[in-house]
Every structure is written in structure tokens, then in C-alpha cells.
Amino acid sequence: MAQDQKRTVQPCRGLLGEINVPGDKSISHRAIMFASLAQGTSRVVGLLRGEDCLATLKAFQQLGIKVDEKSADELVIHGHGIHGLAEPDDVIDCGNSGTTMRLISGILAAQPFFSVLTGDQYLRKRPMKRIIDPLTTMGAKILGRDAGSKAPLAINGGGLRPVEYHSPIASAQVKSALILAGMQIEGTTTVFEPHLSRDHSERMLRSFGAELESFSGGVRITGPVDLQGQEVVVPGDISSAAFFMVAGLIVPGSELLIKNVGVNPTRSGVIDILQLMGGSIELLNRRQASGEPVADILVKSSDLKGIEISGDLIPRAIDEFPVISVAAAYASGVTTISEAAELRVKETDRIAAMCETLGALGARIEPLPDGMRIEGKELLSGGEVSSFGDHRIAMSLAVAALRTSSGVSIADTACTETSFPGFWELLSQVSRAT
Ligand code: S3P
Fold first, then answer.
1. Would you give the end-to-end CA distance of the chain in angstroms?
2. Is there an atom of ligand 1 within 6 Å of 53 CB?
3. pLDDT in the model for residue 433
4. 390 catalytic, yes or no?
């Protein structure tokens, strides 16, 4: 990934138009993974071709899976069932993607061969014990750097037994890693979580033919499962749409229709939060695609007010807090985000990153151990900031810039390719210049 690409975003007079955002990242990863473990051919339409998902795709090609690239966003994947993977002859590079590393670890822990996973400088700092510990309880043999807590990880797969695991955190990556290990072995694996995390794995595995029991507080799967190739239609990513939702709300004179966005209730916390803040957001044309709820989202500029955010809203909006903090910086009154310590172990420490960068632009924002306190203002001043190499920080700062007095220069912006190719072009396409 090219470092240090600097971009300047000027204030604008409103965002207008109809847009589509790229495919959902979480669903795209899972479509590639489950199609690779299924028997037969799967077609994936609307795939996100961001760097994270391309890392997943390359990983399965290294594991022996044949993929036909039909067009920019359509793949045909030829799976040979859960026993159809082969030992990779080189290290698998997960790039910046925590989902790639944690979910593939669950898959490879049960495969009868040796594999090594690494990632970029950011991913190699992120906590892996959260999956290594429960997988080790299942009998997995996983070695890692820093006393077995960080990548690179070396996995000697096979010999697993089912487990009942009470996860201390609401994490879809942890839950999915255990489901993916458990579904390959004889017996029932159960994962309990403190709040429901995103349930794309459960929904998509069911559509591939697996039986999972979701109950209040957790999910249970009995293996081994027999997955059958499917067609998966990937909706637009609500996490990418969130940048345009906040931009449309905070910049006076805006009206944006964001088409074909996944609105799974385990992901739609950002809509609830922005509506609670007084944002005008309407869901139109609600429908289903491949077992996921989808809608078009109409956003109109609104006067936002500060609110308190905690509890089960946190996992339902976990990736959106950088841009929610931007909304809060322009709201009247105080917004408090708490019980969100997970933000400290994302692609970067997102609490520290947003406090430093929005603070530098004149926002009244202070860190809490598990969140942030933000007192809104009419206007921010603008200035020079860095994304810290985190795609969602870069895009949140671009949104913040739209209502500054003098614009914002953002360093290290190439990282937006991780999840949102075309972000800068789309933003300038819908922004009315001052
Ligand atoms: C993801 C789960 C979340 C989220 C990440 C994608 C997934 O992470 O932040 O961007 O696709 O399962 P956690 O499981 O660590 O909360």
C-alpha cells in the first residue's frame, strides 16, 4: 500500500445525488471463504474489490482454490468441500485485514496441514489471543509472536474437539473463527457472547446448507457440515454508506440517496444512533438479497443533538464510531460514547486517533478509557492531520472537512483502498463546491 498520499478536502455547500457504495466487506470475505469450503461452484456478485477482500481471495488461491474473475465485481469460485483445501507452500499475507486473519485461523486450525499467517505492520500489532486461546482449548496448535499473542501465526492444523466458549467480548471475528473450526469436526460447538455481534456468518452458512442454532446469547453448530455452492449477492456496505450519511446530515443543503445498502439489524446501529441524534434518515424500498436485508437510504441535512451511546448499540455500530464522532463534533450539546474499549484495538487506536485529529481541527473532544466525550460546535477550523494509516479515520476526516472554515489536508490516504475503492472520486462527484 502506498504510504503518505496526501489529499486536501475543501468545505462544500451541500451533497446532492444518488450514489452506490461498494460491496459489504464482511459479507464479501465470508462469500469467498464459504464458497471455497463448499462443494461445487459458487457465483459471487457485487463483491468488494478492496485490498482486505483481495487478501482473502489470494489466501484461498494459495490454499488451492480455483477462481474465475468474470468481471470487476463478479467471481466464480470452485470449491471441493471442507476437505478440499491444500497446504500452502508459502506464508499467507492477510495485509491489513483482521477478518482475514481471524476467520482463516479458525478454518486452518481444523485442516490437516501446516500454515503461516502474517499481515502488515498494523495487523501484526493487533491482539490474536482472543482467537488463539479458545481455538487452543479446542486442541489447536497455534504459535505466535509476543508470547503467542500476535502475528505471524504458525498453525499446525487438525485434532480438534468441540467446545462451549463464553466470549468476554462481542466480536463477530471471534464467534466466526470458532464456528468455522467447529463446523469441520464431529460434535457441537457453542459460542456465547455478551451482546449479539454481526451475524453474517450464521446467515450465509445457512444459505450454503449448514444448520446453526441461534439463541439468545449465542450460537451453536454441529459438525461436520456439508456446504453446497451458492449464488451470493453482496449488498452495499453500510460502513461505507455511513460516511455519506454523516456528510449528508452535517452539511446544510444536502440530500443524498444511497442505494442498495445492507441494513442487517446487527450492523444498523449507525442509523439508529444518527436518528436518535435527530438526523433525517429514511429507509426506502426495503428488500432481501441472499438472506440479508437491504434498503435505499435517503439522508437530508439536519440539526443534530448530542446523545449517550453505550450497551448493545456499540457492537451494532462498532466500525462507525470514527464518523459518528464527526457527527457529534457538529451536534449541539454533548455526546458520550462508552463501553467501547474495542475501538482501541481496531486498525489503529480509534479513540486516540479521533481525539488527536478532530482536536487538531478545533473540536472539543476528549478520550475516555472506553470511549469519547464530544461537545459539538457549529464549525471546525480545518488544518493538517494524518489518517494513521487507518482507512476509516481517513474517510471520517474527509467528512469532517466538508464543514470546516478552511478545509483539511489529510496525510496517508492510500489506506482507503482497504475498504472503499473510489471513495475520493465519489465524494467530489456529489459535493457542491463553495
Ligand atoms: C468484522 C467484525 C468486527 C469489525 C470488523 C469486521 C467481521 O470486528 O470491526 O471490521 O467481518 O467479522 P470484531 O469482531 O473484532 O468486533
1. 32
2. no
3. 87
4. no
